[in-house]
Design brief:
about 850 residues; 50 strands; about 55% strand
Amino acid sequence: MRLGVSVKRLRWGLLASATLLVVLVAVFLGYGHYRMRDIEKTIRDRVKQRINEGLTYSDSVGGKINYTLHADSGGEVTGRGTDKVYVLHGVKLDLYGRTDGSVDHVYGKEFEYNSTAGTIEALGDVDMDIEAPTSVGGHNTKPARDAESGAPEVIHVKTSGLIYVKHLGVAATKERVEFSYGAMHGSSQGAEFDNGRDVLRLLAQVEASGEEHGQPLHLTASKADYDRTSNMATFENAVVNSGERTARADHAMTYLRHDSSVERLEGTGSVVLSQGTRQVNASRLDATFTTASVVEWMKLTGGVTLLDSNAQRPIHGGSREAEVKFDAKGSPAKIVATGGANVAEIDHRAAGPAQGLRRTLSGEQITMNFVLGAAAKGAKPKSILRELHVASGAKALGDSWSVPGAALGISTGTKGAPVLKTSQVAADDLAGEFVEGLRGEAELKTLHGKGHTQLQQNTSAGAEQVSTGDALEAMLTTGGTATGSRIESALQTGHVTIHSKPALKADAKPGTKVDVTTATAERANYDGATGKLRLTGNAQVNDETTEMSATSIVVDQPTGNAEAEGNVVATVLGNGGQSGDAAGAQVTHVMSASAKLQHAAKLAEFHGTDAQPAKLWQGASQVQAANLFLDGDKHTMAARPEASGALIHAVFAGANAAPNPAAAPKPVAVAASKPVEKGAERASKRPGSPAEKPPEEKSAGRSVARVSAQKMDYAGLEREATFQGAVRIDGISGDATSQRAVLFLTPVAKGGASMAAAHLGVASGTVDHIVLSGDVQLEQPRRHATGETLLYTAATGRYVLTGTPTHPPRAVDAQQGTVTGTSLTFGDSGSTIIVAGEPAMPKSKGTRVRTETEVRPEGKK
């Protein structure tokens, strides 16, 4: 961000310097008037008769010549009635200074003196050469001398129609008055000196030109007054130009010191200060100057406005008042703008949008401190903004234009496409430090915010981020005129809250909903180079379906990916986060030592160790493993241990449905002890015995399956959890082991409470049935069974155990001995075992029979 300050380039001493020219006119009419008062008596006494041979008269006081009058001819004029009129031709008057040895000269072709009327009138042109008094305008301590001849420099005045009226004490002319001093010259239409009031008036069309501090100077005014009693000069409708600089005021007053240097300046009514395309407007201007007429302090009040119409960098701003302090050379050292202070700039030089890159600053009070920058070769150093302080309601805004591939800090939208990023900073109190940029302009380097700080970053792709906190420290890039300044790093502390909305993908459909993420922490550290945001101190991140807390969370803002470290706790809210709705939505929780989230791919990793595994649970279902991997797009989850051969653990709830005879497995043929006819079936018990009744059903209720294995994979769409390697399942009426097991969970009703959790690949719901395979072994009280495949159905609580032709299923009961067959169907340890089929024997051609064997618990009859 680079904020141009117009006032630093304006010369506030223009009106003060122009006042010198008016003082010179006062010297002519005022000093000439006092000398003419003495000469009047000489004229009256010496020209009562006509003079043909010329006249030279000197007057002296105390042996020192006061003046010398010379006239080529003269005499009394007749025909004027009762008036006594005298005339002098070819007049030259030398006026000698009383103390400094200076000599002033007055020349006129013809002067007429009317003793009756008490007037002296120049009938032609009048010229006057007045040696410059000591310290005219505060520039000299000795009478000025011509650089070449060494002769005194003079103030030269020329006019005509000059008349002095004795009883009024006024010397005046309505003709043009021209005056000059060195390189300074000016004029007015008419002039008047009031002896009684000691006031000089330039009546109209006042103009003055010259040079001040090496710069050309031009003054115009509708009129000007100089009051010698108060030592004050007044200008009406004054306009002063110096190069590109212009100062205007409806009414301007300059207060002079005794050495004629300007001490103070006041401008009121439509004060305008401008340079080139820049302009400052105010109702009032107050300024003070050094004895060398260099401005040292200035204050603008009454609706101060700043406007720069530059096509490349237009600026506008304002405040209720602005105060400026200057250094010894008249360059701004400090500016304080108070009362709704604001400044805004649009930089069209930078590559970017057609509307340009914006930079704005506002607050109740803006304070700027300046230093002299490095001077370019052959040029004078310029004032450069070094420090900035904004108090009460501080706000700053800056645009930057991305370079494709550069980190912007938040998701940018279309890959590789340029994106406009807008950064806004707000605080109760905001301070900034500037450095001199490549173009010799002040560029903002650091920002310090205190109290209710806010950092907002938006992109044209639609990404938004707003963070709030107690304090803010930010570093900005410099030298980036092509793209604008960007935040290089930022640290926000104290009750930090961040709201982020990523940009829509380029192929997103209209109306696509964008998740808003909220984060809280005690510290938020943003790295602009990587686009990563690190949250520490009670760090929490949540969106509409997920909440996560950790010791620290690092968010990669261009992608939305996140990494969490230390005491990670994640919560997935079912049914869009409405955990308390009528559908009874469940909540999925995850705890781990660390986590990684990939936003676009919808991938999540939770990591721990085998000793302290990551834990996931929903309701009564749990998964524990050193590593948990969730895929939201594929709706899958994988659990893996840290070391080879280590185990993962899971717990699933099982549900037992109400008794349902139709769901009970039907008995099938099993090899009997005696051959029977092919296709015949015979029960081992008589009709009506317990063996012919449907298998016993467990009462409706819940049970739990605890599973351990070397790895687990869950498919959310199929609602299947697959375990492999050293599988062990216990807790559902037994303890089973195998090489592989698949748990089938109950289907989720469309729109049901667990849809959101299932969509994220979270194992949830209850067990519908389980299939174990590969070296299956089942331990129940007083029973041990083996086989190759075991099917457990939660609704009936029944097991179906099968084997292979060479390894048929086998059940060993403590009371009944060994039972085998093609399949064995049973429930808990006290249930009937249904044996179906005869175990296949090599080259056996035996027929099939149906047999039921009932195994009763000890003591049961």
